[in-house]
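Why does residue order matter? Because the sequence determines the fold. Keep that principle in mind as you read this record.
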Amino acid sequence: MSLINFGDSLKNARIPRRKTLKKLGTLKCDAVETTPVVFGGRLIRFEWIRNNNWGESGGVDRGLGCYSFVDMENEEIISTFAEDHSFGCCYEEDGKMYVCGVRGGGGGQILDLFVSSDLKKWESSVALTFPDNISLFNTSICKGDGEYIMAIEIGGSHEAVGNPFTIVFARSEDLVHWSMLDMMEYSYSRSRYTACPCIRYVDGQYYIIYLESAPLHRWLPYIVRTKDFKDYEAGVINPVMYPDNDDKQVICPERFTKEALDRIENAVNCNNSDFDMCYYNGKTIITYSWGNQIGKEFLAVAEYDGTDDEFLKSFFE
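Structure:
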């Protein structure tokens, strides 16, 4: 496994001015690990509702975490399900919603799969089981070259985990039955912290936006692409985004209490993490979290005036 020499790609790079994402502001306090998705022509959002052991729980006293879908137009909850699960993701295809996530409060060894045609009734099965010395966290699913690929963030003492965290990969032909790629041969990256993957496939390349730790407690999303999950090319433009005051803009401030608005205004902001996206009505919709990366986080949204394919390619050409 290697990262293609970044210096070589810079020597003769020609990067014209390009469209960039626009941060729209904060949607919610104490929410992370979300996925925007279009279902039935409607823009909705998948969320992990955290339990009390994971940072601030949003004012809800929960001993067990669960999942929910939220209407992004009015922030109304559509459904809540999968009690005692954490760190999930979703993928929609042919009118079915597929949700995959970690059984238990986080750091477990079982990935469960939930499937629904109406977001109300869910069929569940075990997608993957891992050894006891692996801890499971964030996942992301995309359709690739004749198969589906899941990117999985792992920690623990297993030799496949380098400088936690590390991203490994699984494949499926039907979105239900999954098998792992050899974790020692196919991963990114054991040399440093690589977490929170968002994976997409465009024109023969798998693009991965993931979280890097930077000096002085900074956490930034970077982008790489690969054809084989062995050799990776870093975007000539990186990081994808950076914490700034635009994160603290508030969308629909009337939905927040005075205390919540004060929290947002005065929060430590050294993190843009948990990046995910979908294409909707001519724009790429992006959800991400900002905050202090140790429990006090906020959910925000950004947009790119173009397709998600265009957005991904813009970091390389």
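The longest strand covers residues 134-143.
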